[in-house]
Design brief:
Largest sheet: 10 strands, mixed
CATH architecture of the largest domain: Alpha-Beta Complex
Distance between the termini: 14 Å
CATH topology of the largest domain: Adenylosuccinate Synthetase, Chain A, domain 3
Strand content: 15-25%
Oligomer: single chain
Number of domains: 3
Strand order of the largest sheet: 9-7-5-2-10-1-11-15-19-20
Shape: globular
CATH superfamily of the largest domain: Adenylosuccinate Synthetase, subunit A, domain 3
Helix content: 25-40%
CATH class of the largest domain: Alpha Beta
Bound molecules: guanosine-5'-diphosphate, 6-O-phosphoryl inosine monophosphate, magnesium ion
Radius of gyration: 22 Å
């Protein structure tokens, strides 16, 4: 059976998915994205070269790999070509031979960005803290059956009339909240040349991927955002608008579910969140300084928006929930080295709500805000682990920390990342996903 592995963030994003996808991409023939858009920021460090991928799969860094932007994505054509042009300056060529964009993916148009701003302003203190890239409004149009798909845009008359139709409604909302109405002709003139440029990239990617799987070609499916930002399973309404969890990989690529042979969860040794929303283990008050230390050591600033990420302790209760809904076959644990400076490390192993220990992850955000995390404290190791590649070379306390996390999350840890570079990685086990690391 062909190897089809889904990579999913287990927390609120930025776990280091880009690094792990880049690391594993050389063992796969195709790398595909299945949801989200340029709200993602996946950083890849290769020697002294850094790349940040927003729309394109991180596999693009490896010459000769095919990349797919699946039907579950929302694609801003302007952002696509800006990214392609930026990569070209770095010697990576985004060509139709290598990159296929699903004809069924939806377009993000300028009015989606305007609506994203309007919606956040309307919410005021209750805002989501979105990336303002138009992601939510584009998915709203998709679910509302008025979205414009990549293939629709190939017919310029269809594109023009859909823009006119949708903009009439969008402008009513934008203007009602004091925004500037957009002009349909201007939107068309901006978008039409871009969709024309996109034409050679457009393909039936579901067919391409299923045929590839049938022909025994290996596929790595790269998740963006993360489980706790999933529109169904995340901390709703403080979520993104797509199905980020492994289940979304089938819907968002058209690959039949039984083709998927494993799910790798990307778990960071601590937690961050960018944007608003409940965050039970956030380092606040007396721990704010510690949060700042982690932010600096881990360079925790948004790769898309530059916003400082909120930092907190490892939340094993939330990660166990993520492991359950995604069915992680194995976990890649990232950023162990960031904790090198700490005397003690806390891990949240349970939640107490209104005085009672609870068993399941709360569905209501107001409840998540009232959670009292139950912590266990482990000793730090106060030794550099940067670049360690062998488990036996880790300080004993670092090894115990890794083993403890595996035990409390209930999933084996397949690899540990000890720095942003490809070779700063420690492979622990290679059993759960059928030996995929060894291939
Ligand atoms: P993603 O959105 O999940 O791909 O994660 P981001 O790229 O937004 O953020 C992760 C950041 O941590 C990037 O700057 C990576 O280069 C960096 N990184 C990844 N793994 C490690 C690691 O093990 N140690 C350190 N120090 N940095 C890492
Ligand atoms: P990667 O793939 C972290 C967050 C936003 C906001 C919420 C909704 O790099 O891990 P949206 O613009 O999607 O409507 O915003 O989701 N968010 C992310 N947080 N990493 C990301 O991507 C994110 N993409 C969206 O901050 O809280
Ligand atoms: Mg990111």
């Amino acid at each position: 059976m062909s190897k089809v592995i889904v990579i999913v963030g287990a927390q609120w994003g930025d776990e280091g998915k880009g690094k792990i996808v880049d690391l594993l991409a050389e063992r796969f023939e195709i790398v595909a994205r299945y949801q989200g858009g340029h709200n993602a920021g996946h950083s890849v460090q290769v020697g002294d070269r850094s790349f940040v991928l927003h729309l394109l799969p991180s596999g693009i860094i490896h010459e000769g790999k095919s990349c797919v932007l699946g039907n579950g994505m929302v694609i801003d054509p302007k952002a696509f070509f800006e990214e392609a042009d930026r990569l070209a300056e770095q010697g990576i060529h985004v060509t139709p031979e290598r990159v296929k964009v699903s004809s069924r993916a939806h377009l993000i148009l300028p009015y989606h960005r305007a609506l994203d701003h309007t919606s956040e302003e309307r919410l005021g203190n209750e805002r989501v803290g979105t990336t303002l890239r138009g992601i939510g409004p584009a998915y709203e149009d998709k679910a509302g059956r008025r979205g414009i798909r990549v293939a629709d845009a190939l017919d310029s008359e269809v594109l023009r009339s859909r823009i006119e139709w949708n903009l009439a409604d969008a402008n009513r909302v934008i203007e009602a909240y004091g925004g500037q109405a957009l002009d349909a002709a201007q939107v068309f003139d901006e978008i039409a040349p871009l969709t024309e440029r996109l034409a050679p990239f457009i393909a039936d990617t579901s067919h391409f991927l299923n045929r590839a799987a049938r022909d025994n070609r290996s596929i790595l499916i790269e998740g963006a955002q993360a489980a706790l930002l999933d529109v169904d399973h995340g901390t709703y309404p403080f979520v993104t608008s797509s199905s980020t969890t492994a289940g979304g990989a089938s819907a968002g690529t058209g690959l039949a579910p039984q083709r998927i042979t494993g799910v790798l969860g990307i778990v960071r040794t601590y937690t961050t969140r960018v944007g608003e929303g409940p965050f039970p283990t956030e380092m606040l008050g007396g721990e704010a300084e510690l949060g700042q230390l982690i932010r600096e050591r881990g360079r925790e600033y948004g790769a898309s928006t530059g916003r400082p990420r909120r930092c907190g302790w490892f939340d094993a209760f939330a990660t166990r929930y993520a492991a359950e809904i995604n069915g992680f076959s194995s976990v890649a644990l990232t950023k162990l080295d960031v904790l090198d400076a700490l005397d003690e490390i806390k891990v949240c192993t349970g939640y107490r709500l209104d005085g009672k220990v609870i068993e399941t992850f709360p569905a209501v955000s107001a409840e998540l805000r009232r959670i009292e995390p139950l912590y266990e404290t482990l000793p730090g190791w106060k030794t550099s682990t940067v670049g360690t590649t062998n488990m036996s070379d880790l300080p004993a306390n670092a090894r115990s920390y890794v083993e403890f996390l595996s035990q409390v999350v209930g999933v084996e840890i397949g690899l540990v990342s000890t720095g942003p570079e490809r070779d700063q990685t420690l492979i622990c086990r290679d059993s759960a996903l059928g030996g995929w690391l060894a291939d």
